[in-house]
Amino acid sequence: MMRNASPRILFSVVTGAAPVGSAARTHPANASGASVRMAHPTLHFLRGCLLALCCLLAVPTSWANADASLDARAQRLAEQLRCVVCQNQSIAESDADLARDLRRQVSEMLAAGQDEAAVRAFMVERYGDFVLYDPPLKAGTLLLWLGPLLLFASAVGAFAWRLRHLPRGPQADAAARARARALLKEDDPA
Amino acid sequence: MKLKSFLPLALFLGFAVLLGIGLTLKPRELPSPLIDKPAPQFSLPRLQQDGALALADMRGQVWLLNVWASWCVGCREEHPALLRLAQRKLLPIVGLNYKDERADALRWLKEHDDPYTVSVVDADGRVGIDYGVYGVPETFIIDAAGRIRYKHIGPLTDESVERELLPRIRALQGG
To answer: Where is the Thioredoxin domain (chain B) (predicted)?
Structure first.
């Protein structure tokens, strides 16, 4: 963040654009700044020099950004790795000592130029597929992936089977219905 | 018809058995993917003497790697069993002193007696990570060719030494 700051301020000087929330925007002396800016050729030249300087300064800035994106990658990766001590937290969430060590390991490996797959392989080699919150589909994890589907399918199957084999009550024929009506009439107080 | 009326009972019993098995499992004990794989290399400073000990130094013999620390409560629990095993002089026991302070570790061994042939210092826990250590104490059986053959997670007891470790150690030493 700090390394970002100085080129950003220089940039605002060069382009005349003020960062959001800065005092320059509301300063009354700056209100006519736009017309002054284009007026003087030397000023123009100076601005060009400043812009060039800015571009030079932007190089370390992009390094700083690389740092930040590395942190973000490490964080994303840490969220996908289970902390084997606490088991229901990722190593990003956990405060366990081992989780801290593994976060350090992830950051170091990414900083050394290794990719996410390499870090994941490193963890699986030591702790097994269990460290992955998104385990790969293979013989050992087949039941894990297909189990819920199988359960659901068998539940639907059982339900369908029940529906088809529902016992049907005996159908009353016309004579029985007439008899029932007569009986009901008998009971009717009206 | 009669058979069908037993179906719910059968389903229930099946489910109960499944859950019962589930209760006896220990989800905290993860199967190590390192079993039957070459033990990860290390070269670590010795705790009590000068110099280092490397994995290669242990080649040619069956040995035990016991991960311990002075801050570890389970280690205190397993210590008597480990001392008794050491007294039998069946195999070298290497202590991996995991993320500990040297002074604390030395004091701990003085107070509780030292079962280890040698202890090495893994101060930042990197070798621990290589061995997939996640809960101290842990104990590995490593064979003469330097392969990990068994891993015990948690405190050892006389019973687990007798039942889990010794048969495997004897088989490896005999072969």
So the answer is: 33-174
ipTM of the complex: 0.84
Residue range(s) defining the domain that contains residue A12: 1-67
Q: Where are the alpha helices (DSSP H) in A2-141?
A: 2-15, 23-26, 33-39, 41-79, 97-111, 116-127
- Higher-pLDDT residue of A171 and B40 is B40
- Classify residue A93: in a domain, yes or no: no
For residue A135, what are the contacts with CB-CB under 8 A and spacing of at least 6? A129, A141, A144
SS3 B142: strand
Q: What's the rounded Cα separation, in Å, for the pair B40 and A83? A: 21
Residue A25 confidence (pLDDT): 40
May I ask the CATH class of domain B31-174? Answer: alpha beta
On whether residue A82 sits in a domain, the answer given is no
Q: Tally A–B CB contacts below 8 A.
A: 38
To probe the interface with B, which of A104, A107, A127, A131 has the most B CB atoms within 10 Å? A127
Q: What is the pTM of this model?
A: 0.68
Q: Which residue has the tokens 């740092």?
A: A67
B118-122/B93-98 β-pairing: parallel
Q: From the centroid of its chain, how far is CA B114?
A: 17
Nearest-Cα residue of chain B relative to residue A125? B33
Q: For Cα atoms A75, A77, A79, give the angle at the middle one, nearest 5 degrees.
A: 70
| Number of domains comprising chain A | 1
Q: Is residue A2 part of a domain?
A: yes
